[in-house]
Amino acid sequence: MQEQDPVVSRPEEQPVPPYSWYALSVLVLVYMLNFIDRQILSILANDIKADLGLDDAALGFLYGTAFAVFYALFGIPLGRLADSWHRVKLMTIGLTLWSFMTAISGFAKNGATLTVARIGVGVGEATASPSAYSLISDYFPARLRATALAIYSSGLYIGGGLSLLIGALVVEQWNAAYPGGGPLGLVGWQAAFLAVGIPGLLLAAWVFTLREPVRGALEGNPTPADPHPFRGFVNELFTVIPPFTLVGAARRGIPALLINLAVAVGMLGAAYGVTQLLQSGDGVIPGISDQWLFSAVGYYAVYCWAAALRRRDPATFALIWGSPAFLATVVGYSAVAFMAYATSYWSAPYAERVFEVPKSELGLFIGAPGAVAGFLGVILGGRAADALQEKFANGRVWIILFGLLAPIVPMIIAFTTDNSWVFYGFVFVAQFLSSSALGAAGAVTQTLVLPRMRATATATFFLGTTLIGLALGPYLAGYVSSIRGEDLAAGILSTFVIIPVGLVALVWSLRAVPKALETVQARATAAGEPAAGR
Predict the structure, then answer these.
(1) Contacts by 167-170 with C-beta closer than 8 Å and gap 24+?
(2) pLDDT, tens digit, 9 for 90 and up, residues 5-31
(3) How far apart are the C-alpha atoms of 117 and 356, rounded to whole Å?
(4) What is this structure's pTM?
(5) Distances in whole angstroms, Cα of residue 329 to Cα of each of 38, 64, 146, 439, 513
(6) Quick check: helix, strand or coil at residue 360?
(7) Cα 381 from chain centroid (whole Å)
(8) Which 8-state DSSP code applies to residue 365?
(9) Which of 303, 328, 247, 341 lies closest to 76, judged by CA?
(10) Beta carbons within 8 Å of 134's beta carbon, 6+ residues apart
């Protein structure tokens, strides 16, 4: 008889084997590179702005919306694939793609080329967290899941901090060695993209060696492998990728197609209206800016996916889109991300302009402390969330609420001071406090669904953090800065507009999560899930 993998056979109460911690460490490296490749645009922003003739609104669009919409959009079918296929292989493919597209960014000669490259990075990175969250939930028992997810999430902050250090080092050294441009005519910011993109191809080979654990084994409910894993993925593409969404809607009948068309027209109309109201620039469609066109596509795709999911998998729909507790938690954390993404992206360009410091100093006093702040915040926040959850059924939600409100005062001080050292110190504090919420939010959403739904739940969770937080927060800051005469302080502080939305959502979540946790199986069964599904 073949010996079973300890990750598969251990019961919930047994110690976690060393291999689970090893696998987690590799996943942290992947997430670090994920955010190095994503966040390096921050330290390069002012150089790209000068070379490509962009304004702050365009820079916010490149960092946020161009990446975020496709990250969120492809996260849905890729999340479905992670629920049915080999998660390690999927992550390997995604890591290879986003590393290649990051390297390609180094050859951009205009904003359009860089936009296409950022879209490619977004598609590749969409494989990472659905696969990783699902893997971690099968590597670690529920009692340590928030801690494990927090450790994984620390890669976000470490990678974001390292991106500033690496980007600053490469740009300064390259420009010093090649003042007029180096090989192939590349300047410093272009070389930096190549420097962080190429190593990802090597990391992908390492990731491919990880073991694939059995889904749901820790809960005593091992889920058999899907005999047709790509069938659901292809079907999902027809529910979420325009214009294939029209075919998917037509399959559900003429009424569904007509409603789908009406939603598409309504989204485009809204994008046109917002563009005209804000006069927010030109786009590929006359009268609609790229920012609001991309946003409209993203929100339309989400509607298409949710409508199809409701018919195809009523139980999953019921526990995600039909759950006020789940949705309130996602919206509440998305408000945290709205401010946090804007702060993390714009802090370096702001300091470079206002305090006129070299990039190497930005990497040293924003990048490195930011990595430490994020790491400590997410780890301590995860531990606090687990500890509170043992005492209160909504304990983890309190940590999300803390992450929303606690950074407000440090942000105000940081972006109104005329002292660079005060700025560095309070940006550190703001990042530490906001990062405390991530592990708690991820753990709440994972516990509100059945094991087979975890990767799909993760994709939904990241819809909020991308389509609300990443797609809108950095752009709002850049847009307000542009209309205020390049006033980044006003732009960053304008993101406080999201606080009332997040506060209402999290107060609702505090009340709804305890009852939802008690009724997960009952609600799934009522929606058609077999009673033994958990």
Answers:
(1) 167/40, 167/42, 167/43, 167/44, 167/192, 167/196, 167/359, 167/363, 168/43, 168/358, 168/359, 168/360, 168/362, 168/363, 168/364, 168/367, 169/360, 169/363, 170/195
(2) 444 444 556 678 899 999 999 999 999
(3) 30
(4) 0.85
(5) 25, 22, 15, 12, 8
(6) helix
(7) 18
(8) I
(9) 303
(10) 82, 83, 87, 215, 454, 455, 458
Helix ranges, 140-228 (H)? 145-177, 188-197, 199-207
Residue 285: what pLDDT?
Answer: 78
**Cα–Cα distances in Å, from 251 out to 301, 378, 479, 524?**
16, 44, 40, 25
For 395, how many CA atoms within 13 A lie in the half-sphere containing its CB? 16
As a three-state string, the secondary structure of 169-193 is HHHHHHHHHCCCCCHHHCCHHHHHH
What would the pLDDT profile of 171-190 be if each residue is shown by its tens digit?
A: 999 999 998 888 988 999 99
- The rounded distance, in Å, linking the Cα atoms of 55 and 53 is 7
- The per-residue pLDDT for 464 is 85
Structure tokens at 379: 């780890």
Q: Tens of pLDDT along 370-403? A: 888 888 898 899 899 989 999 999 999 999 999 9
Mean pLDDT (whole number) for 107-124: 93
The size of the chain, in residues, is 534
**Residue 531, helix vs strand vs coil:** coil
Q: Using the predicted structure, report yes or no on whether residue 282 has a pLDDT greater than 80.
A: no
Q: pLDDT at position 186, please?
A: 93
Contact assessment for residue 209 and residue 203, using Cβ atoms and an 8 Å cutoff = no
**Phi, psi (rounded to 5 degrees) for 285:** -110, 125
Retrieve residue 241's tokens.
């990728």
Residue 229: per-residue pLDDT: 84
d(CA 206, CA 200): 10
Neighbours of 487 (CB within 10 A): 15
Instruction: Give percent of the chain above pLDDT 90.
Output: 63
Residue 145: pLDDT band (50, 70, 90) is: confident
How confident is the model at residue 220, as a pLDDT? 67
- Is 475:486 a contact under the CB 8 Å cutoff? no
State how far the Cα of 46 lies from the Cα of 32, in Å rounded to an integer: 23
> What angle, 0 to 180 degrees and rounded to 10, lies between the N-to-C axes of helices 499-518 and 395-405?
170
Largest CA distance in the chain: 72
Nearest to 128 by CA among 164, 182, 91: 91
Say how far apart CA 505 and CA 324 lie, in whole Å.
Answer: 9
CA atoms within 13 A on the CB side of 323: 37
In contact, 236 and 78? CB cutoff 8 Å: no
Asked if 43 contacts 359 with a C-beta cutoff of 8 angstroms, the reply is yes
CA distance 337 to 342: 8
Q: What is the mean pLDDT of the segment spanning 479-488?
A: 93
**Angle at alpha carbon of residue 164, lines to 159 and 170, rounded to 5°:** 115
